[in-house]
Amino acid sequence: MGLVEGKAGIVTGAAGGIGRASALTFAAEGAKVVVSDIDEDGGQETVKLILAAGGDAIFVRADASSESDNEALVEAAVAAFGRLDWSHLNAGLTAPGAPVTEQKKEYFDKVLGVDLLGVVYGLKHQATRMAQQGTGGAIVISASTAGMTAQYGMAPYVTAKWGVLGLMRTAALENAPAGIRVNAICPGMTATAGVQAWADSVPEQAAAVRAKIPLGRLGTPEDQANAAVWLCSDKASYITGTDLVIDGGHLLG
Known about the structure:
Layout lengths: L7 E5 L4 H12 L3 E6 L2 H13 L3 E6 L5 H15 L4 E4 L15 H29 L3 E6 L12 H21 L4 E8 L5 H9 L1 H9 L9 H12 L10 E4 L7
Parallel strand pairs: 1-2, 1-4, 2-3, 4-5, 5-6, 6-7
């Protein structure tokens, strides 16, 4: 039996990176997965990978920053699999690096729209459905270690991730009576395709970053995915309102 055997849920931002790894891991642990993203090609590829491995998944295009898309996403999940037991709200983006005094309004609007309001809308409609089912549920949010520290040149992203952690705790408190657990993972530097391309292009900088990580390496998307699946499993049934730091010990220093 897998950690989430027979359960059905949603992964947003699942066309690649942490989201794809999460969708694959949920499926490998026995869950039915709704793969969601605005990148249709990437999302469909994630579904193909799950099906090829013997899992069960569908793709639903949804813009995380749209409340109506979030509502429709829940309806599609229930139509496909009959229920909603868990969710990984992972969709997110960053803005070009610049001091806060030079950041453009459009960048704040875009990042906060996806990274913060997208979580608001996802929580609203997913928790509502879980409460209606009457059997509880689990929601995990991709926050970031940038939601715990200051990061030069990343004001929109940092603002969103600090907000996400406050939102997570509030949602955990409010939804606990319905048996709905809400937690967050806080990835440190993770070797997604974009980060790996950066590391390959500036190996000396990448080596300097790795040198500051006590465990001596960047995280992998699978490191983050494993934690998300565990938090949504019955193994974590008494955990809610928690931010789980997955950074190889970087924040310790």
